[in-house]
Design goal:
This protein is mostly helical and 496 residues long. The protein is built from 20 helices and two strands. The chain starts with 5 loop residues before the first helix and ends with a helix.
Length: 496
């Protein structure tokens, strides 16, 4: 039955479609193929989520070799949750992208290259999430990273090449650290299967080699997810990449890295080693709090709105890591649900910026005067994403911050709760700067051109699907927060 092979289909569909794009080359055919494949991939991830909720974790043996001898794809409630996010964002952005890349990548004959790299990046991110094998994590990490460098370098601004090169250097450093950590663990245990590794590490956890491997893995993943102060590659990468690339990577790539951090901390090394023996929260919590405050403050002073949202992403990664550092059910629930929620709202904000680039050719704050009247649907979507970023009730951002504040108060960390609330006020400041210019200033006169018009429906509809999700999951929390709570309890090994 095909249901038994859903885990491998999740990877094979975009992986096979990528080289097909190179063979077909016709712009319309390749675009249709990419959109169809991403939506089918999303349907597969939803089916996997439904199966996991009904029957428990899924183990899929590749080539008929049982783990730990063979490679295993393993889908538990956390990985299923991240698969739904990544594939869903991938489908929405692919549907939104044709009009955008027609302007930002004007050489039509190269569109097949864009979709090939896009599908490969999607394959890599899904593969990291679904695999139960440590070396496969590295392989899929490189697939997603190499295709990301190509996608970022396609930006029209020449600085996109510099941004892609900077990302390549930092990404290669991160991948090298991760590979060294995996190699050291293999030397000590003789296995690469995560579940088997977790059992065998118990006997050698006190050795210096394992502690060094742990450090290499943490630093490597922190580079990949742009945890402060290892975030310097991210602002330029987001600011100068094509809008579709920025929206996709901002909503998925760093979230998959956070997922990887969770997997290493709680599945491979275990809570006792990570938080009792290594006292990891002593490092994670200060870095998360400094990142939240510093990045939010820097965002306030940005005039390029894509850069502003990029620094905002660094702050939001801080929220996720803060949730992990609490090492409690409430804290982990907040971190995991924010992983999902931030994907929705940041993708919405960057898609809105992409619509503005499509019509205005700029995302500088001075170019947005009067856009609230000229592009009402686009700016309304931006406002919705901004309200969620702030954490206004009835949006998904409020749900995330509620759990994080609750976790801080449960542990008596009142100053930490204060930092969370203060950073929300900083978000009000930088989002309000855009709203003020767009709604309360007169439109700029554009010589030789008619007035700026609303973005086409092909861009508005996918964007508003995400806006609807922001409010739906902000009101109906049983699904997202409920799944995040189950995942947190599973990671900590407690009964929810």
């Amino acid at each position: 039955m095909i249901d038994n092979h859903l885990p491998i289909l999740q990877i094979l569909l975009p992986l096979v479609a990528a080289p097909l794009c190179l063979l077909l080359r016709h712009r319309v055919v390749v675009t249709a193929l990419a959109i169809a494949v991403t939506w089918v991939t999303f349907a597969v991830s939803v089916a996997l989520m439904a199966t996991v909720l009904q029957q428990g974790p899924i183990s899929y043996e590749l080539g008929g070799w049982p783990p730990p001898w063979g490679i295993e794809y393993r889908v538990d409630i956390l990985s299923a949750f991240v698969l739904v996010l990544v594939s869903g964002i991938g489908a929405v952005v692919a549907t939104w992208s044709p009009a955008s890349i027609s302007v930002e990548l004007p050489r039509y004959e190269r569109h097949y290259l864009f979709y090939c790299a896009y599908l490969l990046c999607l394959t890599g991110l899904l593969g990291i999430t679904i695999t139960g094998d440590m070396f496969n994590v590295f392989v899929f990490l490189e697939i997603s990273a190499l295709s990301s460098y190509v996608l970022i370098s396609m930006g029209q601004d020449r600085r996109a090449l510099t941004a892609a090169y900077s990302y390549l250097i930092m990404g290669t450093l991160g991948a090298t650290f991760i590979l060294i950590g995996i190699g050291l663990l293999y030397i000590m245990t003789g296995t690469l299967n995560m579940a088997d590794l977790a059992l065998r590490l118990q006997d050698v956890a006190d050795t210096r080699t394992v502690i060094v491997a742990f450090a290499f893995l943490i630093v490597g993943v922190s580079l990949k997810m742009a945890l402060f102060p290892l975030h310097l590659w991210l602002p330029n990468a987001y600011a100068y990449a094509p809008s579709a690339v920025t929206a996709f990577l901002a909503a998925t790539a760093t979230k998959v890295a956070v997922y990887l951090l969770l997997r290493f901390f709680f599945t491979v090394f275990g809570y006792d080693f990570s938080f009792d023996r290594m006292q990891l929260w002593i490092v994670l919590m200060p870095l998360a709090l400094i990142g939240i405050l510093t990045a939010s403050l820097v965002a306030v002073f940005q005039n390029n709105i894509k850069r502003m949202l990029a620094y905002s992403s660094v702050a939001q990664i801080g929220y996720m890591v803060l949730g992990i550092s609490f090492a409690s059910v409430s804290g982990l629930t907040g971190g995991v649900v924010h992983l999902f929620n931030h994907g929705l709202m940041k993708c919405t904000l960057f898609l809105a910026m992409g619509c503005i680039v499509y019509r205005c050719g700029s995302v500088h704050i001075d170019e947005m005067r009067g856009l609230g009247r000229r592009m009402p649907w686009t700016m309304a979507a931006f406002v919705a994403g901004g309200l969620s970023l702030i954490g206004v009730p009835m949006t998904v951002g409020f749900i995330s911050k509620w759990f994080l504040v609750k976790a801080a108060l449960e542990q008596g960390l009142w100053p930490v709760a204060g930092v969370i609330l203060f950073s929300s006020l900083l978000a009000v400041v930088y989002i309000w700067r855009v709203i003020e210019v767009a709604y309360f200033e007169e439109p700029l006169a554009v010589d030789g051109q008619g007035p700026v018009r609303e973005a086409p429906l092909s861009m508005l509809i996918p964007m508003w699907v995400l806006v609807a999700a922001i409010f739906y999951f902000g009101v109906t929390t049983e699904l997202t927060a409920g799944i995040a709570q189950q995942a947190a309890a599973s990671l900590l090994g407690v009964v929810p």
